[in-house]
Amino acid sequence: MNTGNKLSTANIVLLFSILILVVIVAVPVILIFITAFFENGKFNIAGIAKILSDPDTYQALLNSLIIAAGTTLVSTTVGTFFAWLVARTDLPLKKTMKALFLVPFMLPSFIGALAWKVLLSPRAGYINKLLMAIFGLSKAPIDILTIGGIIAIESMYLFPFVFLQVEGSLERMDPTLEESARISGANLFTITRKITLPLVMPSILAGALLVALYSLAHFGVPAILGTEKGIYNIPTKIYERIYASGGSFNAIRVGTILSTILVISAALILKLQDMLLKKGQYQIIAGKSMRPMVMKLRGLKIPLLIISILYIGITVILPTVTIFLVGGLKTYGLSFELKNMTWNNYLKIFQWKMTKDAIWNSLYLSLGAAFVTMLAGTMISYVIVKMKVRGKFILQFLGVLPFSLPGTVIALGVILTWSGRFGINLYNTPWIIFVAYIARYMAFSIKSNSASLSQVSDSLEEASRACGATHWQSLKNIVIPLIKPGMISAFFLIFLPALRELTTSVLLYGPTTRTIGVAIYALNEDGETVRAAALASIALVIIFAGETIIRKFLARLDQAKVKVQE
Amino acid sequence: MADLQLSAVSKSYGTHRVLDKITFKVNSGECFTLLGPSGCGKTVILRLIAGFESPDEGEVSIGGHVVATAKHSLPPEERHIGVVFQDYAVWPHKTVYENIAYPLEIAKMPHEQIKSAVSDAIDQVNLAGLAQRYPYQLSGGQQQRVALARALVTKPDVMLLDEPLTNLDANLREEMRFEIKELQRKTGTTIFYVTHDQEVALAISDKMAVMDDKGIIRQIGSPDEVYERPIDAFVYQFLGIPNFIPVAIKSGQAFIDTDAVQGAAELPLQALADFPSQRFPGPKGKLACRPMDVILSRSIHPETMVKAKIVRLSLLGPIVDYLLDIGGIAIRAQMQTEAAMAQDLLIEEGQECGVRFAEPKWFSEDGEAIR
Predict the structure, then answer these.
(1) ipTM of the assembly?
(2) For labelling, which of A14, A21, A103, B189 has a CA lying 20 to 30 Å from the CA of A332?
(3) Dihedrals φ, ψ of B82, to 5°?
(4) How far is CA B92 from CA A326, A346, B95, B102, in A?
């Protein structure tokens, strides 16, 4: 609403919003590019080429690529198969299975990796030992500390990205498309190949790209399974360089060059995904909910159900149980017998300063970041969605930019920005993690808030103005109450991932500012597997409890929203 | 109650000039309708009056006070207006009572006074008993009444209504438009009503303005003035189903201007009606006639009638609708079903008949009315 005043509240809010995004998002990114491309004030492409052709960094790039490609392939296959099973067959317990296939999302992948290392490490993995005992083998049959192992574990926890996308589009697909093919005489196999598959292909690819994006910049799993054997991908290489050199500028520079590659790949991936999704949506999605054609599994019904349940059991329950059991061991390496177990480890987590600090740090940092990011995101979304002001395209651009910024990149950018260059040095304080979380999750907040704001018709606010309320009163009385559900869900969308964050925090923590993720990682690195597992168990309890409460809460909000919209 | 005036108001979005020097006045206590096709800029005018937009040029004044110029624009909350939106804009998180009480709470009216004012407003719009309902528990018509009550409750200087009946079904629309008129009579508020529905405009206005799709106001006048004496062909066709017959003027006489008409081409149309031949600016023009004024006859009297073929006859309950063909020109005719039956005029499709035009309107070739 432009009321004609040159420096109106609208303009102040716009400027303030731009300022937040510039400081939090734009400056760090620009500094990364500047540091990567300029050396001693001179444009230096030869330096970049030299660093990239260094076998050490080159290998990291290659590994990242191989891991991302492998993970994408496996996740996409698994995700698409289970999506089809749930959406298009007469599999029993479909609803339960659908919910179960999303559970791997809840388990932080680095905790999963930790569990699998305990089970399948070639030296002391419990399953390996078991197999060796049973079959009398002299060597461990499975080695998880390989690229293949990393791909397998990442896929276990990333396939829901594909599952969600494909399942959704299979369910919403207009069944008349397939029915008309059937009427024309095609059999089910031909229909699947010629009609169904091409129609859901955009969703499959979109899910696959999401996995690729995530895996390419993923720190946790390669860090836990790879570094011991010298297998590095880009994020772990950046961490290793900076950590080994004690944060030297040269290491940071290498980091910025590798980051630039991550950012460019991520931007390309997101662009491609956007194009695919747009194309896909127009083609197949029918507005009404319909009953899609279902394939009868007949004899395969029970075997496939068992396979699905086993899959969940192996990927979710087994690692979770392992973590809880290891966390209770008196000493790592003992067998899981009652005499070897103790509750003490769990109690001590709340007594040791390091772990106690970590829980406390994670809690207040994620709560604080979620709160601030939610509020700032609400304001920025309001400007983007509701205000008619010139210059808001800057906000639109800066608002989605963090989507293409991997956690490692954000951490580097934050280091470059907040280490005294602009007179503020937050290094080794919790504040640096705080600003990094805000940068990392701002896009979530803007997305969630924009969605709920665009559902609030402009006339609702204008009606309030016409009733004599000022702009601020209208926001307070009308707009905020109506978008509260979106704000709350933005809060949780930030709070939960931030609580278990590792990739960004691991580059930013100081002696007293470890987060839960960092503490688990550090304990594991120091060989304190039992303590790491005990802390991870407690983290899992917090995460599961949080997720459950939030799901219940969001479901209730959804019901309320339906009521309001009717 | 106050008057409302726009003087030479212009507004552009980007390079697109939506309004160009719009000027009109709404007198105090008047119900003024702005009628125009969708997308013509009529809602922009309402938003300029409300203060949701500001003009690029010109002035808006309410009750003699200038509320908006290009330089300064009073925000909507300081204009003492009431607005009713097409989508009702009833707040979904507030009850009927809370919706209607809101403007009074904002005005910091004492609690007891709010209570009685709201219950008066609820009675006025016939919503008694629904005060504690939420909008989702109301029908569209009831929600629109809430919006009306909310706009009325502060006794605003001017009420602005933006297509308030468009989202209602036909029966309710008819009922509500009488209620709005009745409310206006009771409260004496100045109403500025924007619509594309000519029936509503004709039914409730004291004065109306017809706007074309380029945002130009073609005519302002009372409903019967505009309906009976349209200034041009646009206004004429916008106020009801039009029949236009091209005519050629030769030596002071009008002929149907089509090659396909055999015989009829020689028929001087002035024989059918008063023909203002001297006032025609050129050799061609248009004859316009409402379907109800097309008079049919089974027998064809060539001196006073033209020959037509019945293409389609539809019985629409109380009226009969004919589609006629006069030398390739499609003409709609309507008459009361009872009268048509009494006069044996339910003529079979494909048959020929005679046609006479009562109360014709004449327009020049560029559509200007010839009187």
Answers:
(1) 0.84
(2) A103
(3) -120, 140
(4) 52, 49, 8, 13
Report A:179-208 residues touching B (Cβ under 8 A). none
Q: What confidence tens digit (pLDDT) does each residue in A342-380 have? A: 888 888 888 888 888 999 999 999 999 999 999 999 999
Are the C-beta atoms of residues A131 and A137 closer than 8 Å to each other? yes
Residue type, A332: Y
> Looking at the partner chain, which of B86, B136, B150 has a beta carbon nearest the beta carbon of A564?
B136
Min distance A288 CA to chain B CA atoms (Å): 22
- DSSP labels, A16-84: HHHHHHIIIIIHHHHHHHHHHHEETTEE-HHHHHHHHHSHHHHHHHHHHHHHHHHHHHHHHHHHHHHHH
Residue among A389, A459, A467 with most chain B CBs within 10 A, to mutate: A467
Cross-chain Cβ contact A4/B72 below 8 Å? yes
CB-based contact B92 A1, cutoff 8 Å: no
Which of A19-23, A36-40, B216-220 ranks highest by mean pLDDT? Answer: B216-220
Q: Which CATH superfamily is domain A54-322 in?
A: MetI-like (1.10.3720.10)
Q: Does residue B275 sit at the A interface (CB-CB below 8 Å)?
A: no
CB contact set of A188 (below 8 Å; sequence gap of 6+): A182, A295
Residues in chain B with CB shorter than 8 Å from the CB of A477 are 102
Distance between CA atoms of residues B89 and A462, nearest Å: 9
Q: Which of A97, A46, A108, A90 is nearest to A538 (CA)?
A: A108
Is the Cβ of B281 closer than 8 Å to some Cβ of chain A?
Answer: no
CATH of domain A328-566: 1.10.3720.10
What is the CATH T-level fold of the domain B243-370, as seen in this structure?
OB fold (Dihydrolipoamide Acetyltransferase, E2P) (2.40.50)
**């019901």: which residue's tokens?**
A559
Numbered ranges of CATH 1.10.3720.10 in chain A: 54-322, 328-566
Domain boundaries, chain B: 4-237, 243-370
* CATH fold for domain B4-237: Rossmann fold (3.40.50)
Please indicate whether, in this complex, the C-beta atoms of B93 and A468 are within 8 angstroms of each other.
no
List pLDDT tens digits, range A273-327: 777 767 655 454 444 445 666 777 778 888 999 999 999 999 889 999 999 988 8
Q: Structure tokens of A67?
A: 């891991």
Residues A279/A202, Cβ–Cβ less than 8 Å: yes
Cα diameter, chain B: 80
Mind listing the pLDDT tens digit for each residue in B129-170? 899 999 988 988 899 899 999 998 988 989 999 988 887 788
Distance CA B292, CA B319 (A): 10
Tell me how far apart the alpha carbons of residues A401 and B286 are, in angstroms, rounded to a whole number. 62
Q: What is the pLDDT of residues A115-129, one digit of tens each?
A: 999 888 887 788 888
Write out A166-196 in H/E/C secondary structure. HHHHHHHECHHHHHHHHHCCCCHHHHHHHHH
pTM: 0.81
